[in-house]
Amino acid sequence: MEALVSGDFASFMEQEAEQRRPGFWPPFGRLVAMIVSADTPEAADATARALGQEAPRLEGVQVLGPAPAPLAILRGRHRQRLLLRARRNIPVQPIMREWLSRVKPERGARVDVDIDPISFL
Question: What global pTM score does this model have?
């Protein structure tokens, strides 16, 4: 933060890269954000738990969550979040397609997928 506050953008970017590279955070890795939303908290929780239990277990892939979404209730829908993090060289679309095929959302639940998200709200 000191580099950013002092206007030393190059140092800030270098420090950020050092922190992101080992954990394969972007731009050194890929992210997929999943938001489970439902009319009831029970349906959102059950669908998110099912996704968590069926999460891919692959080398270079990690699933975080489920956890309450930053905006846990939006437009009357209850929301949970999961995040898939993968090494840059791993194609995430086939992983997501296979993962989602194994889970049937609860009635009234929906799963939204955002590959390489820009926002986490």
Answer: 0.81
Of 78, 58, 61, 66, nearest in space to 34 by CA: 66
Contact 41, 78 (CB under 8 A): yes
Superfamily the domain 29-115 falls into: Ribosomal protein S10 (3.30.70.600)
In eight-state DSSP terms, residue 105 is: P
Backbone angles phi, psi at 59, to 5 degrees: -60, 130
Question: What are the φ and ψ backbone dihedral angles of 98, each rounded to 5 degrees?
Answer: -70, -45
34 token code pair: 């999943």
Q: Residues with Cβ < 8 Å from 77, sequence gap 6 or more?
A: 37, 38, 39, 44
Q: According to DSSP H, which parts of 6-91 are helical? A: 9-20, 41-53
62 vs 55: CA distance, rounded Å: 9
Give pLDDT tens digits for 35-78: 999 999 999 999 999 999 999 999 999 999 999 998 898 899 99
- Per 3-state DSSP, what percentage of the chain is helix, strand, and coil (rounded to 5)? 30, 35, 35
